[in-house]
Amino acid sequence: MKTQILIAALFFSGLAAAQQAKDTLKVKNIEAVNIKKQVFKKQSDRFIYDVASSPIAKGTNTFNLLKQTPMISSIDGKSLKIMGKSDVVIYINNKKSNMDAEALIEMLKGTPSEDIQKIEVITTPGSEFQVESNEGVINIVMKKKKNDGYNGTLKMNNEQAYYNNPSAGASFNFRKNKWSVNSNFNTGSWTDRERYTLSNGDSTFRNESFGFNSDPNKNVGGSVNIDYELNKNHSLGFTYNMRYNKSFNSILDITNWENGALINRTVNNENAQTRNHSFNLNYEIKTDSIGSKLTSNVSYLWFNRDKMSTNESFPLNTDPDNKYSALQQSVPQIINNYAANIDYLKKTAKGSTWLMGVSYNHTNTDNDTKQDKIINNAIINDANQTNHFIYKERILGAYITYERKLSDKFSGKIGSRYEITRSSGEILGKTSFDRNYNNLLPYLNLNYAISSDHNLTYSFSSRIRRPRFWELNPSRTYFTPNNYTQNNPFVLASKFYNQEISYMYKNAFFANVSFNYVKDASNQIPLQGSVTGPENDENGNPVMVTKKFLRYIRTNYGDNKQFGLTLGMNKSWFKEIWTTNYSVNLGYNIYKGAVTADPTSVPVEGQTEVVEPYVINFKNFNVSGNINNNIRLSSNKDWFLGVNYYYGSKVKIESGTLGVRQSFDVSLKKIMGNWTFVAEVYDLFNQNYNSIQGVQPNGSYNNVVNFEYSRLLNIGVTYNFGNQKLKKAREIKSANDAIKSRT
């Protein structure tokens, strides 16, 4: 018996030892094949930042998350750029956002970063994207969750800059069986404060102006998205977006000197309201089990902006020719847009993808500008500046794109977009014009995965930049009676040709070389000159008077070429305690053109206008960079320190040389369950402001310093409630998205 027990003991001990050896081997095998998930990688035509695998995505909002995404930057907290130069269009789950720019930023700031799965950066968008000029695309992919229930977010912020600016927002999501509803609401009040130093002239004349602008705003915005799944292959969706902004008693106060002598003080008081409502009806059909689908949209957009202003000039010297003057101005704008589109995505069993679609946009704008002079308390209409401008635009577009993986290493995407534009403008009773053009816009993307550590991509695209509707409205915004901005209804569309070569190493280091050529480029150009005409002296006798002017005119000027090189890295250190995102952008620009006349001038009997030619002919090298650091301060992953720095060197642009800009930001975040507390200081050293110096070959100059009090302290509190595993309703792309960006 003892022998049997001994044999059994030896047997089972050997079995246990063998099993332990197997388990040990199994553990070693598991350890050997354990692969760390790639946070940042290149795929086909886009860069992918898997933020769900990054410690940065804890305890912040989507806007701050985007600012720390490789290739993306924001220096003003109000806009985003790709590689320091390209403007961006936001897509959510591959569908373009329905919101205007300010409402979109507020939505991003109110969306918890924990809801984001990944961020895709598309520097050269394909033909299927509705973008203009050299805009890039940021596609935000939300986490997919299936549980029924509800959840939401409450967020409060308080910014202390020159003024105190509070804001609050809330989002609510509900899902039950076939119904999905998500909504958001935000409100806030803020006052922008800016300080101006303006000077212009030549060897014989010098004008200097100093002053400030105080612009109070109250804002309410929100959206509702309802999605109903008719069956597993058919879905119906409805989206409504709204935004209301009120800016009453906005004051621009400027004091003016001429040749060193105090002349007058100009005060501009403005009241403005903006209303924006948009509706979209979406229908989607899944046509097979591998991802093919047909999507259709019908949309309507109504945009209304009312602006009333009074501009008064008070004499501050004893010159009898320097009299009190005043004018009042009404500049309303109404935009109605009707749009529809059908898109078809076809996937094949061999892995190829076809994308094709058609779209139609019909836009009417109504701009009834009235301007009056106030003389001896009497209101006298200024017929030269009073106009009723009607603009109509119809755009029919069609695109087709083919994408295929040719081998394990090589893939390609080729496509084209054809757009037919028919537009007409009329200043009632004065002049009219028709502007019709057709554009074929090809696209090509070639991607070569050299190895698991090396990836190379070439992209080419061409795009059109149509004038924004406010740029076409022939109205003025006054600094002083002789210094103002002037919109231009005769601006032509610009054509962009964009090329890029991108290289990525080990999904952490990247380089991007770009070349952009712009034909019929347009911008706001400072035109100086003089107007000579009869005026009555103090005795009522007509005398000839010459007055200098400075007009910022939105107009075409010529062509430009831009070469760019971006080098960067995104990497975590010390077991993801320290996460870095560094990039540097090198640029070389060639601008060539000239503006020799004011395209908006209307001849006035008895007056002679002389415009000094404005020459744009220069080559320029510039550099900018971002340094973003996120440091986890505790092992519980509940304290985070952010240290960020932006630098932009001097760069020559159409209006002059823009000076050095810098911003040093610090943030501290604390996560307590569903609560997140944030304290942030932006532009700690107050170095983020615009200083432009422009000198022409004939010696005339125009200098502008615009200081916006950008240093601010922000305190934010966010609370997440409900079922955090809830899946949101479908994000739906409206048919009139391309129009919204131009309002």
TrEMBL record:
One of its GO terms (cellular component) is cell outer membrane. GO terms for molecular function: siderophore uptake transmembrane transporter activity. It is a multi-pass membrane protein. InterPro entries: Beta-barrel_TonB_sf, OMP_b-brl_3, TonB-dep_rcpt-like. It comes from the Bacteria. Its main location: membrane. Residues 1-18 form the signal peptide. Keywords: Cell outer membrane, Membrane, Receptor, Signal, Transmembrane, Transmembrane beta strand, Transport. One of its GO terms (biological process) is siderophore transmembrane transport. Residues 286-719 form the Outer membrane protein beta-barrel domain. It is found in: Cell outer membrane. PANTHER family: HEMOGLOBIN AND HEMOGLOBIN-HAPTOGLOBIN-BINDING PROTEIN 1-RELATED, TONB-DEPENDENT OUTER MEMBRANE RECEPTOR. This is Outer membrane receptor proteins, mostly Fe transport. The lineage of its organism: Bacteria, Pseudomonadati, Bacteroidota, Flavobacteriia, Flavobacteriales.
